[in-house]
Specification:
By secondary structure, the chain is an alpha+beta fold. It has four helices and 13 strands.
Length: 264
């Protein structure tokens, strides 16, 4: 044990890893699709480590177990995806660059408390998604970002189907309706191109492999036809050569016979 570790007092605070509040099924389904999709997207594009997690406590004040957030999906920069933790202490790892909150039945928590708590936690960009928004007081999307003073400010409220997430380098798009509502990643001009899920990638790869197999089968059939045609050509050439040889022998026989007749 190092001298520094010996001199550092042990933190007696108990930091719970879960609470008694459950999440709605739609909320869970949205996160189950988005978290691995975002993890793969950032892993393929980010030059450094990045960790994408879901529904864990992120503590932002030492010795205060009540100072915490539990985003539905979050991104921790400079933390490997392979690192596993039951909860995160933001004095040990960087604060989240991105957090997503899916509005649950406790609307006030996500609309009012979430921005205030994420500001304290140091979150750079917070997106609030309300799949059941209705009326003038609720929005499908809210986007909060740090301003020049370092405060988390509301920069966009919209019922359009997509918003731009600056820290992610892509768009977040709503797809489906009702119980099939999901949040997807999108790229391209205005977020026109959906980033495929692993299942969609596998399906496309299977389709590509099927097309390649079909093309190879067609090539095999064509090659077989070519081989058959070549065999017929070879057989025809053989017969032609045999006829030519027979004709040449016949000519020699006739010439020999004619020569013998003249000698008589």
């Amino acid at each position: 044990m190092t001298m520094r570790a010996m001199m550092t007092p042990r933190d007696p605070t108990i930091y719970p890893e879960t609470d008694e509040m459950g999440e709605g099924e739609l909320q869970r389904l949205i996160c189950e699709l988005l978290r691995p999709l975002l993890a793969r997207f950032l892993a393929e594009r980010s030059p450094g480590d990045v960790h994408v997690g879901s529904n864990q406590f992120l503590y932002y004040e030492k010795h205060n177990s009540a100072a915490r957030i539990a985003p539905d999906v979050y991104v921790l920069p400079d933390v490997p995806q392979t690192r596993v933790a039951r909860s995160w202490k933001l004095w040990e790892v960087p604060p989240p660059s991105f957090c997503l909150e899916v509005v649950s039945t406790v609307v006030a928590k996500d609309y009012a408390a979430s921005p205030a708590l994420n500001e304290l936690a140091g979150t750079r960009e917070l997106v609030i998604f309300d799949p059941e928004h209705e009326g003038d007081a609720r929005w499908l999307w809210q986007v909060w970002r740090r301003d020049r003073r370092g405060a988390l400010e509301l920069v966009e409220q919209t019922n359009h189907d997509r918003v731009h997430a600056v820290t992610l380098g892509c768009y977040l798009r709503r797809t489906g309706n009702g119980g099939e509502t999901r949040v997807r990643l999108a790229t391209g001009f205005g977020g026109r191109d959906l980033v495929p899920t692993d299942a969609e990638r596998a399906a496309r790869e299977a389709q590509r492999a099927a097309r390649e197999a079909q093309r190879a089968a067609h090539e095999a059939v064509r090659a077989a036809h070519e081989a058959e045609r070549a065999a017929h050509e070879a057989e025809r050439a053989k017969r032609e050569a045999e006829r030519a040889d027979a004709a040449e022998r016949r000519v020699r026989e006739l010439e020999a016979k004619l020569g013998r007749t003249r000698e008589k």
